[in-house]
Amino acid sequence: MAPAPALAQWSEDFESYGDGQLLYHVGGWSGFFDEMNVAGRATSAQARSGNRSIFVGPGTDAVHPFIPNYTSGQWTLSAWMYMAREDHVEDTYFIVHNEFEFPGPFRWTIEMQFDYSTGTVLDDFRPDTPIPIAYDRWAPIRIDFDLDNDAQTTWYDGQFLSTGTVRLDPSFPLAVANVNLFSAGATSYYDDFRIIPAPGGAAVLSLGALALAGRRRRHRRA
Q: Residue 177 domain-assigned?
């Protein structure tokens, strides 16, 4: 598979696809391991803007690789997610890799786990600050990357979720390689993906570090 080259900016609103269309080898989308049976589908069941979103149901493992990868500069990756409380019967995940090649290797940088047992979302690799899931409405996801300084900060529903390095190991590539939407059994929808230059550049990342420090101070006083 050869996804379309990543431009300086990327966006996806799913309006160019038919209702129910399998997002496999179209618009840069595929399934993990390039498998058709785990690709997502365009749907009119929910939409934040326009008439379409991507349906991520049980067993979906949709991916959109960026070729070439984003490897320098400050970038903001954003998307909107909708999940009904009654559909959250298993965990579902919003994932970004910093290395992603069929059939491998794969290196994770962020894994947002929407935990059905607790009703919270956390970053699996930086799990200290889980926050409640915003059910039955569209909620924004935002990740600010500073690829020049190996830093990232993740936000969900306007709240700070985590901050840390882009690479989980110094030997891993310093890059944003894809978006990966995986469901172990829940049903959710995503819409209005964007990658744009980060407003304020590295200053945005420092806000995440301050938010984390503030939470830790409050925790120590409790």
A: yes
- Spell out the residues 6+ positions from residue 204 whose beta carbon is closer than 8 angstroms to its own: 74, 76, 144, 153, 198
Q: Is residue 158 part of a domain?
A: no
Q: Which letter does DSSP use for residue 17 in this model?
A: S
- 129-160 pLDDT, tens digit per residue, is 999 999 999 999 999 999 999 999 999 999 99
* Beta bridge partner(s), residue 5: 67
Count of domains for the chain: 1
- Domain CATH for 115: 2.60.120
- 19-55 burial, b if ≥16 CB within 10 A, otherwise e? eebbbbeebbbbbbeeeeebbbbbbeebbbeeebbbb
Tokens standing for residue 219: 């925790």
What's the CA gap between 165 and 156, in Å, rounded?
Answer: 18
Separation in Å, CA 31 to CA 3, 65, 96, 108, 112: 12, 10, 14, 16, 18
